[in-house]
């Protein structure tokens, strides 16, 4: 079945936990910005027709980033939260498009994982995820353990997350209307009763959040070049 797939990259965050002098998507990683690493696989993929990048309207860096001039890329302004930025990007899509949403700070996404999630045609949508391998503890006060969770039923949610654009747009708008906090696209869809599919992805698809993550990303990229 032929369909139009548009990648959405919310890139309007400030990345305060990185303790850097600029938003983390503009930090250097082996001679390129994190955002350049992130965007490249989406630009190159033949099943992705275009890429919408949502940046802050006060962002002083995006205009000097050459990759954002690529003909496959369009730029919109983001919003107050990640979900608002995704919604602003969704407003530029057609109702029959499919939206492939990916974190700007995940620069290690592999073509093989993109291929896997793009094979999904269920209207329930899908997300990349990895099974939880650590012992997981639940706390009621943030300090003491209340009990241990069964890790066999737990997965780490990754991105991209892949949904029909119209359904995702409506789900996010509904969540906003109800004053609900949504941390990823799947959580918005779940609130409407949808049960997205889990697609097992690579564990090296890490999100750069803290300074030590940047060093780990560099390690993975150097190993890939060997």
TrEMBL record:
GO biological process: isopentenyl diphosphate biosynthetic process, methylerythritol 4-phosphate pathway
UniProtKB keywords: Isoprene biosynthesis, Nucleotidyltransferase, Transferase
Top-rank taxon, per record: Bacteria
Family matches, as InterPro entries: IspD (IPR001228), IspD/TarI (IPR034683), IspD/TarI_cytidylyltransf_bact (IPR050088), Nucleotide-diphossugar_trans (IPR029044)
Gene Ontology MF: a single term: 2-C-methyl-D-erythritol 4-phosphate cytidylyltransferase activity
Enzyme Commission code: 2.7.7.60
Pathway noted in the entry: Isoprenoid biosynthesis; isopentenyl diphosphate biosynthesis via DXP pathway; isopentenyl diphosphate from 1-deoxy-D-xylulose 5-phosphate: step 2/6
Reactions catalysed according to its record: 2-C-methyl-D-erythritol 4-phosphate + CTP + H(+) = 4-CDP-2-C-methyl-D-erythritol + diphosphate
Enzyme class: transferase
Pfam families: IspD
Residues annotated as site: Transition state stabilizer: 17, 24
Annotated site, Positions MEP for the nucleophilic attack, chain positions: 151, 207
Protein family per UniProt: Belongs to the IspD/TarI cytidylyltransferase family. IspD subfamily.
HAMAP family linked to this entry: IspD (MF_00108)
Stated role: Catalyzes the formation of 4-diphosphocytidyl-2-C-methyl-D-erythritol from CTP and 2-C-methyl-D-erythritol 4-phosphate (MEP).
Protein name per the record: 2-C-methyl-D-erythritol 4-phosphate cytidylyltransferase
Organism: Frederiksenia canicola
């Amino acid at each position: 079945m032929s369909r139009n797939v548009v990648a959405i990259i919310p890139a309007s965050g400030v990345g305060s936990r990185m303790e850097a002098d600029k938003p983390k998507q503009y930090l250097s990683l082996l001679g390129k910005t994190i955002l350049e690493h992130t965007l490249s696989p989406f630009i190159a993929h033949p099943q992705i027709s275009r890429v919408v990048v949502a940046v802050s309207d006060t962002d002083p860096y995006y205009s000097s980033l050459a990759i954002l001039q690529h003909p496959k890329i369009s730029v919109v302004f983001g919003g107050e939260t990640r979900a608002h930025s995704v919604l602003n990007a969704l407003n530029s899509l057609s109702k029959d498009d499919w939206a492939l949403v990916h974190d700007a700070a995940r620069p290690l996404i592999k073509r093989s994982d993109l291929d896997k999630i793009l094979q999904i045609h269920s209207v329930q949508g899908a997300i990349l995820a990895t099974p939880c391998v650590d012992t997981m503890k639940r706390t009621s006060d943030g300090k003491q353990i209340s009990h241990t969770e069964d890790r066999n039923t737990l997965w780490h949610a990754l991105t991209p997350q892949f949904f029909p654009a119209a359904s995702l747009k409506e789900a996010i708008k509904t969540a906003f209307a109800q004053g609900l906090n949504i941390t990823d696209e799947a959580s918005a869809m779940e609130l409407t009763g949808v049960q997205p599919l889990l697609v097992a992805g690579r564990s090296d698809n890490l999100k750069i959040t803290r300074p030590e993550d940047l060093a780990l990303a560099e390690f993975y990229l150097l190993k890939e070049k060997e």
